[in-house]
Design a protein that fits this description.
The complex is a heterodimer of chains A (293) and B (421).
Chain A (H helix, E strand, L loop, with lengths): L5 H29 L2 E3 L4 E4 L3 H8 L1 H33 L5 H9 L6 H12 L5 H8 L13 H13 L3 H12 L3 H9 L4 H12 L1 H16 L3 H6 L11 H10 L3 H36 L1
Antiparallel strand pairs in A: 1-2
Helix pairs in contact in A: 1-14, 2-14, 3-7, 3-8, 3-11, 4-8, 11-14, 13-14
Chain B lengths: L1 H28 L3 E7 L8 H14 L4 E7 L3 H13 L6 E4 L33 H4 L1 E2 L2 E2 L1 E8 L2 E4 H6 L9 H13 L3 E3 L9 H15 L12 H12 L14 H9 L3 E5 L5 H7 L1 H6 E4 L11 E12 L5 H14 L2 H11 L2 E2 L11 H12 L2 E3 L8 H15 L5 H11 L2
Parallel strand pairs in B: 1-2, 8-9, 11-13
Antiparallel strand pairs in B: 3-11, 4-5, 6-11, 6-12, 7-9, 7-10
Helix pairs in contact in B: 2-13, 7-8, 8-16, 15-16
The chains are: A mainly alpha (293), B alpha/beta (421).
Chain lengths: 293, 421
């Protein structure tokens, strides 16, 4: 049965649909289209079939990049969210100075990633970096090394400094935590539950939905990660910290636009698969818990 | 009432902003041709001042008719990326700096660059030193104007050498390694190296010097499968071992390599004349004691060769507007006028593909560049000028792998061959 307001609905929906098609659907389609042509950026040179995909799959750096992107996704999706949740749950208890701490933890999120990365490059520097100096001062000088210049330490060094910036997700989780009625905690306290038990049996189940959503967002960021690695190591040393975003960027630099778009297409498909899987597994379990509750 | 006033104020601001923009656009369209000139010759670059002065003078001389607007892009690698993206999107700046290498010369095949072949055949050609216009001509077409050239001999700190009991720079690698040991014994790190940046610049130049010593002027006729590349890699690897370079060389960029030399932490460095202005300003004490030398020769290799190349050309967007084309050509001729280029050279230390004579008060380091250029037995381009960007970029990664013991010299070259496919 036709909705009598269909004209109004169409009128209100059209601008959004047009913008969505223009800025999302069309570029997405164009990425896949260009991934099948050989294009140097100057003049298109014809249909390449699957050659661009074969070229990137045969590149040894490609496997490393995919692996690193998955490591990033898991590190941020699990590690950073866990840290954010921990900080949020502590702040939700309202300790002294919690409002100040909330601001301090969020502050790095308003600072440019470029500035943050430059700062960490200086901290990690082998010759004059603060980290090595501190290690020497506390008698652990034998641990001092070229943190960003060693295959074993470069990737962990970049990931750790990103994990520490918990402010963004902390704010989201904190808002969710603070919306839980205090009567639940009071009742639990009367029943003799400790703080840890309260957090485990009250807070965590009730914020599970927001934790899942935050985890998915963090994993999406990990899959499209680029800035910190590009600024700090440019994918080195020996391509050990390379991610798909950097491979894509490098191929643009090499005037290999077809290959760059092929990498983009793979990233889109991989990201969609991971996010959909996450939503269907952990997301479904979360919905069931909320429904039962 | 308050909300109404606020709303009206915001509307007024928006209208003024839009009107202001339209007014400005109308001003531009009122007869004056505005040419955009994105460049990295800004900020800390030694040519920033003289280039800005030349543009200002040009604008003053052509007031109301032509106005060149410099768009600052301080980062060289970022500039190139931004430019590639713009060119691929068909958005070509009116005038820009073109980095001539096998990858960028592909743009000659497209219809996006102004073809100046005929203009460069006339009187204008007489201003250029021999060979440069030919080097900028591909398939019979010249689509960029030769401008800045590079020469990258070895720089060494005479004071640090003296402290280690050393005299002149060694002429062969046996003496070089012996000198390195003496420097280390005196608590001085011998060389600045780097695997970072887009092209591992300092180490790439060392690699080029070593290759030139192995195979002489015909070095680049040999493909990557030639044994010269493995032999040179083995020598380059030693520069990263046993404390012959700084601990942050792997992953370090030009700022790291140059910074160590300017801070007096390393004794040996490589760079071109454009760095003279920078070192004079930021490290005058090191500038005063820097001497230049040819690279040491490998066993049974050539000594006295130099790495010389076209560093930056000037290019312009293709246009069907004759007035615009005339304006662009007028500016390009202004920038390549020998007296203007001489001024840039004297103030910045840079060298150019034009014929000009420097004055008596030339910087002592620039004077050394001219002397070493004259004394060079032969000159070849550097590695980056011979291979596509993909190979040069992989050189830094492969060098990092080799320096960290993750790849042998043979595997290092294999990585370059893989990148060339």
């Amino acid at each position: 049965m036709r909705n009598k307001h269909w004209k109004a609905i169409l009128l209100f929906l059209t601008p959004t649909v047009v913008l969505y098609a223009l800025f999302f659907v069309f570029p997405l389609g164009y990425v896949f289209f260009v991934s099948f042509i050989r294009w140097s950026g100057a003049i298109p040179t014809g249909f390449a079939g699957f050659q661009n995909y074969l070229d990137i799959f045969h590149n040894p750096t490609f496997a490393v990049s995919i692996r690193n992107n998955i490591i990033w996704a898991l590190s941020l999706g699990i590690g950073q969210i866990a840290l954010s949740a921990l900080v949020a749950m502590i702040l939700a208890r309202g300790p002294w100075g919690w409002r100040f701490l909330r601001t301090v933890y969020f502050l790095p999120n308003v600072i440019s990633q470029v500035a943050i990365s430059m700062m960490w490059i200086a901290i990690y520097n082998a010759e004059y970096g603060a980290l090595n100096r501190i290690l020497e001062q506390i008698g652990l000088g034998h641990l001092a090394r070229n943190w960003l210049g060693l295959v074993e330490t470069a990737l962990p060094a970049i990931i750790i400094q990103q994990l520490l910036y918990v402010g963004y997700f902390m704010i989201i989780i904190l808002a969710s935590t603070m919306s839980i009625p205090t009567s639940y905690y009071e009742a639990a306290q009367i029943d003799g539950a400790s703080v840890l038990q309260q957090e485990r049996y009250i807070t965590l189940p009730l914020i599970r939905g927001i934790l899942v959503t935050s985890s998915i967002l963090a994993m999406a960021y990990g899959l499209r990660h680029f800035e910190a690695t590009f600024l700090m190591t440019a994918g080195g040393p020996a391509n050990s910290t390379s991610v798909m975003g950097i491979m894509l960027f490098n191929n643009l630099h090499f005037l290999q636009y077809g290959r760059a778009n092929a990498i983009g297409a793979v990233l889109i498909v991989l990201g969609a698969l991971i996010i959909v899987t996450m939503r269907r597994t952990i997301g479904r379990q979360s919905e069931e818990i909320v429904a039962k509750g | 009432m308050k909300h109404r006033v606020l709303f009206l104020s915001i509307c007024l601001l928006v209208v003024l902003a839009v009107y202001g923009d339209l007014f400005a656009a109308a001003q531009k369209e009122g007869g004056e041709i505005v040419l955009t000139f994105p460049t990295f010759w800004v900020g800390q670059d030694s040519k920033a001042g003289p280039i800005a002065d030349l543009v200002q003078q040009f604008n003053a001389d052509n007031a109301g008719k032509i106005r060149v607007v410099i768009e600052a892009n301080p980062d060289t690698d970022g500039y190139r990326t931004k430019l590639n993206t713009s060119l691929a999107a068909g958005v070509v700046p009116d005038i820009f700096v073109f980095n001539p290498d096998p990858t960028t010369f592909q743009y000659y095949d497209a219809d996006i660059l102004m073809d100046i072949t005929e203009e460069l055949k006339g009187a204008w050609a007489q201003d250029f030193a021999p060979g440069y216009i030919e080097a900028s001509t591909k398939k019979g077409r010249a689509k960029t104007v030769p401008f800045e050239t590079g020469l990258t001999p070895i720089w060494y700190n005479q004071e640090l050498f003296g402290r280690a009991g050393l005299g002149d720079f060694p002429k062969n690698f046996d003496d070089f390694w012996a000198a390195a040991e003496k420097l280390k014994a005196a608590g001085i790190v011998p060389t600045s190296q780097m695997t970072g940046g887009a092209n591992a610049w300092t180490s790439m130049l060392w690699y080029s010097h070593i290759l030139a010593s192995i195979s002489g002027p015909e070095v680049w006729k040999n493909p990557l499968t030639h044994p010269q590349y493995v032999q040179a890699a083995e020598i380059l690897l030693r520069m990263y071992q046993d404390g012959n370079t700084t601990k942050d060389a792997v992953g370090g960029d030009a700022g790291v390599a140059g910074g160590h030399y300017m801070a007096g932490r390393t004794a040996i460095f490589i760079n071109g004349p454009w760095y003279i202005g920078r070192i004079k300003k930021d490290a005058p004490a090191v500038h005063a004691v820097t001497k230049l030398a040819h690279a040491p020769a490998v066993k049974a290799g050539a000594y006295g060769g130099e790495i010389g190349f076209q560093l930056s050309n000037l290019a312009a967007a293709n246009t069907k507007d004759p007035a615009r084309k005339a304006a662009v050509l007028k500016f390009l001729r202004w920038m390549t006028k020998p007296e203007n280029v001489k001024m840039i050279s004297e103030r910045s230390g840079a060298m150019f593909a034009l014929k000009y004579q420097l004055g008596a008060q030339v910087d002592p380091l620039l004077k050394q560049f001219i002397e070493i250029s004259s004394s060079a037995k032969f000159s070849v381009g550097h590695f980056e000028s011979q291979y596509p960007v993909a190979v040069t970029q992989e050189l830094g990664q492969a060098l990092g792998a080799m320096a960290l013991g993750k790849a042998t010299a043979k595997e290092f070259v294999q990585m370059l061959i893989q990148a060339s496919k």
